[in-house]
Amino acid sequence: MTTSSLTTPTGTATADRRPPALGGFSPAVLLIEMRRVLRNRRTLLFTMVMPAVFFLLFGLPQRGETLPNGRQVLAWIMVSLAVYGAMVATTSAGAAVATERALGWSRQLRLTPLRPAAYVATKVATAMVLGLAAVVIEFAVGATAGVRLPAHVWLLAGLAAWLGSLVFAALGLLIGYLGPAENVMQFMGPVLALLAMFGGLFLPVETLPDVLQRLAQFTPVWGVGQLARAPLTGDPVTLGVLANVLGWTAVFALGAARLFRRDTQRV
Amino acid sequence: MTSACPAVELRGLRKSFGAVTAVDGLDLTIHPGEVVAFLGPNGAGKTTTIDMLLGLARPDAGEVRLLGGTPAEAVRYGRVAAVMQSGGLLKDLTVAETVRLTASFFGRTRPVAEVLTRAGIADLADRLVGKCSGGQQQRLRFALALLPDPDVMVLDEPTTGMDVEGRRDFWQAIRADARSGRTVVFATHYLDEADAYADRIVLVRQGRVVADGTTAEIKNLAAGRIVRATLPGADQAGLAALPGVDTVEVRGDAVLIRTGDSDAVARHLLTRTAARDLEITSRNLEDAFLALTADASADVAPTTVPARVAATAAPTAGA
Fold it and tell me: Where does the ABC transporter domain lie (chain B) (predicted)?
């Protein structure tokens, strides 16, 4: 086979052909993905601009108010909206799978050596970069508008808001693998806003009626919100909070994995 | 050449979608370096066959071998590439970004600038894919397919929906590429494309190969030429008895003679009869196509089947 002929195509197959490293996951892919996101005005509007505008609209009038532990209410609003921005960002990045399936890109990818796992890894990485950007921008707007916090609170709250949004990257993938659709975020946007309300990102959960307050603790945003604000409020991170975050991560990730397998096995 | 395994080997391929049988026991062997047109009417099973060939669909029965291995292996090593009919592009990327992104999925590729040039879209590099015309998008798909420098290139009705100019530009790019030794398989329902670009034509109808041979052989299947003349009161039986004549048809003063030996018929008509306005026309590929791919509904089936069997048997044995 190797020596039979230099010109037959079957003979050229050997040494210089190899599958890509890491199944096709690479910084180059990530870079192009980021450029795509930055080109999408709607994503930028909902993940970067809107939370900042909300902060200026609803946060600034409460300047000077303080939480029970003496910290600024302004900081509470900032962290909450950072969580909101990050969750919208990661959900939309994950849900981009639905668009790519609708456009036939996923099918095109099956004619390349890219491994499905590397594809998902790219989507998660893109989601997390976008989520980080959302948190950083909201914090920058907050700092500019007068939020003052100790360094460790900035850091811990930021990390929690960012890493907590991994839950929603999983949710996004779950939605993305549910079915092909070009504009899935038109549907998911309002759903996320509703979840954010129950998660106490727009108003403290305590302002909700008693029954809804109890229900709120079982919705997926509540745990991440509590976790991200804990460094600020000094509230303990209860078992309930951890169970909420880990539980929903597991539900979304397993659901996404199941749909992903169904998708890759179908030939 | 004899030691090389076939580029494509399909054995007893079958695929149904519910009650509809799309591919019905298809056998086909394509050797390295062949340029093969997969020709058939819409719904003949071309796309389904190509999907199975590429590993995008699993056959209900039968076997697919691509360069001696499975389609998945060929894809993994970039030995096969395809230009699909539509879709498969991200509208929010530029042309160059699409090529760079796709290149990153392969272990080794041709340079991005090179494939853009070879596909004739170097000047469109910075245009958003969503703003490209159908023909430009198709040349982009072709550029992507060139990236891994594949041994087998598959094109599924690549010019569907293009205008005449778009089709010409697209085929010019393909022809300019024509790397010696690359196997090219393209599905089409345009006869002129099959005629102009393929060395070999495989005619499919209702999921089966109904004829397989060189373009000339396929044309011959439509049985010779037609001699037409004005000859009032033609002796139909006498003409039918001439050597090589298949049928004689009288339409008013005109007579139409289908024959394998048009010279003999013309000589006879002009020297022994009062025939005038003599015309000789070659039956073209379209006639062959229509004859071989006509829907085998009850009214035509009995007469066309034997011819088709003969057509399938002869060129395959010779290939």
Answer: 8-231
pLDDT of residue B311: 40
B85-104 tens-digit pLDDT: 888 999 999 999 999 999 99
Do B278 and B154 belong together in one domain?
no
Neighbours of A209 (CB within 10 A): 8
Spatial separation of the C-alpha atoms in residues B39 and B190, rounded to whole Å: 8
Residues whose CB is less than 8 angstroms from the CB of residue A235 and which lie 6 or more positions away in sequence, other chains included? A226, A229
pLDDT at residue B295 in the model: 52
The minimum CA-CA distance between A175 and chain B, rounded to whole Å, is 19
**CB contacts, 8 Å: B58 with chain A:** 267
Q: A24 at the B interface (CB within 8 A)?
A: yes
The residue among A38, A112, A185 with the most chain B CBs within 10 A of its CB, best to mutate, is: A112
* B229 within domain boundaries: yes
* Selection from B191, B222, B205 nearest residue B37 by Cα: B191
pLDDT above 70 coverage of chain B, percent: 86
pLDDT tens across B269-304, in order? Answer: 999 888 999 998 876 667 667 767 665 443 333 333
Nearest residue of A to residue B69, measured between CA atoms: A10
Confidence band (pLDDT; 50, 70, 90) for B62? very high
Residue B146's closest chain A neighbor by CA? A112
Do residue B104 and residue A29 have CB atoms under 8 angstroms apart? yes
Chain mean pLDDT for chain B: 84
Domain final residue, candidates B192, B219, B246? B219
Same domain, B163 and B179: yes
B198 & B230 share domain: no
* B5 burial level (CB within 10 Å; 0-12, 13-18, 19+): middle
Domain boundaries defined on chain A: 22-265
* CATH value at residue B258: 3.30.70.100
Residue B319, pLDDT score: 33
User: By the CB < 8 Å criterion, does A89 face chain B?
Assistant: no
Query: Would residue B318 count as lying in a domain?
Result: no
Q: Which domain holds residue B46?
A: 8-79+150-219
Asked whether residue B21 is assigned to any structural domain, the reply reads: yes
